[in-house]
Each structure stands twice: as C-alpha cells, then as structure tokens.
User: Which sequence fits this backbone?
C-alpha cells in the first residue's frame, strides 16, 4: 500500500490514448512501454514515456516496465539530441499530487531544452494533433535508424 496521494483523473487519459479511444500521437510502442508526443510542449520535442499497462506511479511498475521505460527514455533522448540539436535534454518524473503529478499513470518526460535553458514551467499552448504528428515524423527516423546499446 502506497502512501502517495495520486490525482483522481479517470478514465485515464494515457490508457485512452494507447487504446485509441482518444486521438493522440503515439510515436513508438513496444510491449511494456510507449512514446507519446505531448500536446503541451514544454521543451523542443517534448515526449512522454508511458507504461502500456496502467500503473499510477513508480511504486506500481514492475521490473520489465522499469527496464522498458528507461530504454525508451534513452532512445527518446538520442532522437531529440539528433533532431533538435539542443545544448541540454531535460528528463523528469512526478509521483503523487504533492510532486505535481497530473495524470495517475506512470510516465517520464523527455524534452530538449528551450532557448535560455530548461523547460517551460508556465502554461503552454496546446498543439493540434497535426502539429504533434509533424514532431513524430521528424523524430521517427531517428528512433528506427539507430540502436543504442
């Protein structure tokens, strides 16, 4: 039993995106994890690495999911580095309301830094599905073209 207080946001948006119930850009999907292009771009090519199984926090994922999400976070970082050529890449993950977790489904943020450094913390314009699909088209060749061991 976890002591974390997680957001009450059901049905789960990420589960709906992964099932196709709600349209969203799925950049890459594997058995235990997937890469999504978020509509709230807080950095250059801001991606989300999510577990394919619903698991609210890091305390709820298993070893296979842990390995898969870290591997995909690294692949995402390599693709962002190659395509965006930013001087920094931010990776962050929140668990529980006190840590500012908004969607109760384990996910890791991976984003190229913005001009001036860091990522955008204030409100950002929500991109259209067409705009996130364009980001996916730029990154997808890098995900498929390289194997990072």
Assistant:
């Amino acid at each position: 039993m976890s002591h974390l207080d997680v957001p009450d946001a059901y049905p789960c948006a990420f589960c709906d995106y992964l099932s196709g119930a709600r349209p969203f850009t799925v950049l890459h999907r594997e058995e235990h994890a997937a890469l999504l292009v978020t509509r709230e771009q807080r950095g250059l090519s801001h991606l989300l690495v999510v577990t394919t199984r619903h698991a609210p926090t890091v305390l709820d994922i298993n070893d296979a999911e842990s390995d898969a999400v870290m591997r995909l976070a690294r692949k995402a970082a390599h693709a962002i580095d190659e395509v965006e050529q930013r001087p920094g890449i931010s990776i962050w993950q929140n668990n529980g309301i006190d840590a500012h977790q908004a969607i109760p489904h384990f996910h890791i943020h991976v984003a190229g830094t913005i001009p001036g450094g860091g990522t955008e913390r204030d409100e950002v314009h929500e991109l259209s599905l067409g705009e996130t699909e364009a980001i996916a088209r730029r990154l997808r060749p890098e995900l498929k073209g390289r194997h990072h061991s």
Q: What stands out?
A: Residues 17 and 24 are 6 Å apart (CA to CA). The chain has a mean pLDDT of 94.
